[in-house]
């Protein structure tokens, strides 16, 4: 136990939670030898804790830097001078050590404790899924969507990124607000249930609030500090191009029915029907020019119907006819989407 290098190594291991029981016994034995050892240990731990959040990425010689610090400290016998100079010297000389200990670059398992790994849950068209985040938040992910999130929330905020559509049931935590990054704007929540549709091919982002409180941040106007808050059963439609938005009362079933397997249209135009029907059944829906010019609106609910059954039901209420073309085999042996050609009767 005379080797200071080894003692400093043990302190680093303890701080980074890498110490085994035998090493713990050795460190405790050294601490019991004298009050000076305890004082030295406590001061080192204080500084390690203070600099724990630093995120530099440089691997260093731990023992060498600790010895430099010790050498500097030993020059001062007065207690007050000791503390003052320890803080000054430690801030300079202990920096690499502290980074090593906090982040432990040479040991990936320790590094992962400080910086969460990012995960992605992605669904293909025609498929829906459900996941639970580390904080207990539940997320339903709709067809053709991607959610990126950390394996563990470790900071002051909980943030995920959404491309596509998802329904969130956020675990309440006012001290750690929940953010959904929508590539240009964000939705903020604490504990609430809401649905967001943010497909990249769409011209708008919609957020429907079922319960609780949410706010749309940043991109709602040129004023980056402005936010708009929704009330329950309201929907905000944000136009990506001109950053304009409007809020209206909404029929929740239309926007969240999909989590129960229901595709619901209510006075929707051809563009909306083409997009949502195509994602739901993994097909490309094409309306001819006459239908597009007719300003038809569609109202229907589909739950267990096939694509052909859904199209047939639509044709009963609207003067349209349809033709389904099978997908063709591609060079990589995959098959293209089915195409549906919809024309006026």
Automatic annotation (TrEMBL):
Residues 263-324 form the Protein FecR C-terminal domain. The chain crosses the membrane at residues 82-103. Keywords: Membrane, Transmembrane, Transmembrane helix. Gene3D superfamilies: 2.60.120.1440, 3.55.50.30. InterPro entries: FecR, FecR_C, Ferrdict_sens_TM. Residues 122-214 form the FecR protein domain. GO terms for molecular function: sigma factor antagonist activity. This is Anti-sigma factor.
